[in-house]
Specification:
2 copies of one chain form a homodimer. Chain A is an all-alpha fold. The first copy, chain A, has 8 helices and 2 strands. In chain A, helix 2 packs across helix 4 and helix 5 packs across helix 7. Chain A binds a DNA duplex through helix 1 and helix 4.
DNA sequence: CAAAAAATTTAGCCGCCGCTAAATTTATGA
DNA sequence: TCATAAATTTAGCGGCGGCTAAATTTTTTG
């Protein structure tokens, strides 16, 4: 039985993958949000970040220090937060991943709690799975008749109303 | 802006939902595994459980005590672990959810690390999302030509080789 | 330009879920 | 049966990512 077909707990997988996985889920949340704000305003502040993520400023400070130590943020105490090149690259990836998951959920008919569903799922998706879900999205996009057929299948009676 | 379209961190969602979500991801891992063994052997022991989940026995004890306090296990110190009715019901649900996610991943073409991918994703899926993914699985099952078309779309050139 | 306000950081606590080491209970076999 | 082995539990630690309270720095304003 190889490492691959043995069971682990969520925590167990975390511990196993902490060599190759750079960021924890929490750090990813912060980096993704900083990236969003970079696109909008060009920079980020601790207070803005803590408001956007619904955490206390002290929590934001702690995470920003970690991301900074990892070379993803350009930042000094009491200062303005910018992304380094590495941070931008990672942030862009996180936002893309988010959008792939969200689009998939919309495709299969999720409307309630779309944001929170996406936010929770995105951290547990590998690049490979993300790529394959993206292919499924593209498949539906280029084959709208099939997506339509699925929707009829899913909810007979509501043929056209949703979407 | 309602609670629904605000961002939170993973930890934030955890804290928000701890009223309605009975179990943590970790507890779910243990309960699911106990359920698997119930089906196979009818009972569970701490050592077996810790081996199956690749944790130390002391960790298994701690979680079993928690699940027991929640009324999901029938268990006394140094004794054999059984599921209560509530535990069986929850365990059955967990196994079903696992299988729905796994089938979906297989459908979209995941072969590498299938188990770990499933194990990580399953905890972040709501009942609603699970139901919709299940519908997608059923859709592919009843429309094999469409699944086939997706596979060609996904991997042009490997038309028939996989599955 | 000094005092007050606002923003940020630090220190220290908590629950989760791993771990190790040591204690305890249960099972085995000479 | 009784000593040893095996299984299980307890105690206590560590990192994560929240929190509060208090300290510090920066900004605003009279």
């Amino acid at each position: 039985m190889s490492r691959n077909d043995r069971f682990y707990t969520v925590r167990g997988y975390q511990l196993l993958n902490q060599e190759d996985k750079l960021l924890t889920s929490g750090m990813e949340d912060y980096l993704e949000m900083i990236y969003r704000n970079m696109e909008k305003e060009g920079y980020m502040r601790i207070n803005t970040l803590s408001n956007l993520l619904n955490v206390k400023p002290s929590s934001a400070t702690k995470m920003v220090q970690k991301l900074s130590a990892l070379g993803l943020l350009d930042y000094r105490k009491y200062g303005i937060i910018f992304l380094t090149e590495a941070g931008k690259k990672y942030g862009r990836f996180l936002l893309e991943r988010h959008n792939v998951i969200e689009k998939f959920l919309v495709n299969i008919g999720i409307t309630e709690n779309l944001l929170s569903e996406t936010e929770l799922i995105e951290h547990s998706i590998s690049k490979n799975t993300m790529a394959n879900i993206d292919m499924l999205n593209r498949f539906f996009e280029t084959h709208p008749a099939i997506l339509d057929e699925f929707r009829k299948f899913r909810e007979p009676g509501f043929e056209k109303t949703d979407e």
